[in-house]
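Kindly inspect this one:
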Amino acid sequence: MKIPLTQVSIIAEGVLRDHIVELVHKHGATGHTITQVEGEGSSHRHASDWGGRNIKVETLVSQEVADAIIENLSHEFFEDYSVIAWLTQVNVLRGSKFLKR
């Protein structure tokens, strides 16, 4: 059975890894995936030039949890760090695994 969930995707400086993982779990995520990523933003500079590689953190959560994660993320990191985040509506098989009980 498919369950509608929200995928939260966050690309950030690697130095924020532990902070972002803590943030998503604090708001109710039951798991996450982290990958190393590369790219170039509007400044044409790579954050990795200063502090290591960029990471992408992804998690599947309810819309309510996704909104809380994005709100907290924007307040804590957007002003001082290279961070971008987006939400994607998805249908997940075995989706109940991703909802906190």
Observations:
- The CA atoms of residues 6 and 63 lie 6 Å apart.
- The helical segments are 17-26, 48-51, 63-77.
- Residues 2-92 form a domain with the Alpha-Beta Plaits fold (CATH 3.30.70.120).
